[in-house]
UniProtKB/TrEMBL annotation:
This is NAD(P)-binding domain-containing protein. Gene3D superfamilies: NAD(P)-binding Rossmann-like Domain. SUPFAM superfamilies: NAD(P)-binding Rossmann-fold domains. Transmembrane segments: none annotated. InterPro entries: ComplexI_NDUFA9_subunit, NAD(P)-bd_dom, NAD(P)-bd_dom_sf. PANTHER family: NADH DEHYDROGENASE [UBIQUINONE] 1 ALPHA SUBCOMPLEX SUBUNIT 9, MITOCHONDRIAL, NADH-UBIQUINONE OXIDOREDUCTASE 39 KDA SUBUNIT-RELATED. It comes from Nocardioides furvisabuli. It comes from the Bacteria.
Amino acid sequence: MKVLVLGATGYIGSRLVPHLLERGHHVVAASSSVPDPDRFGWDERVRAIRCDVTDDEAVAEAVRDVDAVVYLVHSLDRSDFGDRDRLAAEVVAAAVGASDVRRLVYLSGLVPDVPESELSAHIASRLEVERILLGSGADAVALRAGVVVGAGSTSFEIIRQIATLFPVQPVPLWMRSSVQPVAVSDVLRAMDDALAEDGPLGAVDVGGPDVVSYPELMRACSRAVGLTRLRVPAPVAPMGLVGLGAALATTAPFHTVTALIESLRHDMVCRPDASWEPDGGGPLLGLEQALDLASTEAYAGPEGALPSDPAWTRGNVLLDLAPLPASTRAAARLALHRVLAVLPGG
C-alpha cells in the first residue's frame, strides 16, 4: 500500500516509517517542516514532504493517490493544544472524505471509565480528535494506547526521569491508579493489523500484558537501570503543584508534562471487550522486558534510542562518563538543560 504518515518525525512516526518499509509499503512521510531523511536514516524509498495539517490545500494534496493515512499528530507542547488538534483533525477528516483513501489509522489514548466531564484536557482532546477522524468516511480505526515504553517515548521518558531523579520520592495518593503500558514494538504490530483491508474498525485499546500502579511502574523504571529509590505517600499533593514540580524536575516541554500529569488520576487500562489481539499471534512484550530493551544503549530495535529522538530525552556524553552518583548526574543534566534553554538558540 501507499501510506501517508502524518507526524512522521515524532516518536512513533520515526519507528513506524522504517517498519512500514520493511513490510513492502510505499511511504510518504509528512511533518510540519520538511523532514530530513538523513536525520532519520530513511532512504530513497521514503518521500518526505512538508504538510501543515491545518492547511486545507496542503492536506488535500498530501492525501491524493494514497491508500491509507496514519495520523500521529499531537500538539501537547502548546498551551492551546486542544484547539489546534481539533482544527487539524477536521481538516484531515474532510480531505480524507473527499479522497480515495481506504484506511485511516489514528493513535489515540486510553480513555478512563469515568464521565467525560471528569476527563483530563489531554484525554478529552484525544477523544474529540478520535471522533472527528472516525467520522471521515474512510474505514477508520483509533488505536488507544497508554504509556508507550521505549527510549524517546514522551510519556515513558517523563515517568523514567521522575522515577530516577531523587533517592526519596513523594508519591501523591491520587497517583495510585492503574496503568497498562505497551511496548512500542507491539504498537507497531497493532498498526500493521489496523492497516490491513480486513483490519479492525472503531476504537480499539492497545496494551501490554501487565497492569501496574504508577508507583509500581516508577519502581520498575528505576530497577531497570539498577537504582533503588524510596517512595513515600504524600497525602496532601494538589495536582497543579505536582504538575509544576514534575515539569521543573524533568527536561520535557513544560506544557507536555503538565498535560500528562493531569491524566494520572484515573485508571488507564484496556477494555476487556475492546482490546487488540495480534492477528499473527505471538506474545506481547512484558513490562520488564520492554524496560530492559529501552535501557540497553546498544539495542537497535524499536525500544532503543534513535539519534533523531528529541534532545531532551537523551543524556549528555560528558556527564554520562563522569564518575558521579546517578542522582547527581541526573541533577546536573537537568541543570545543564535549563541553562541551554535560556541561551540564544537554546
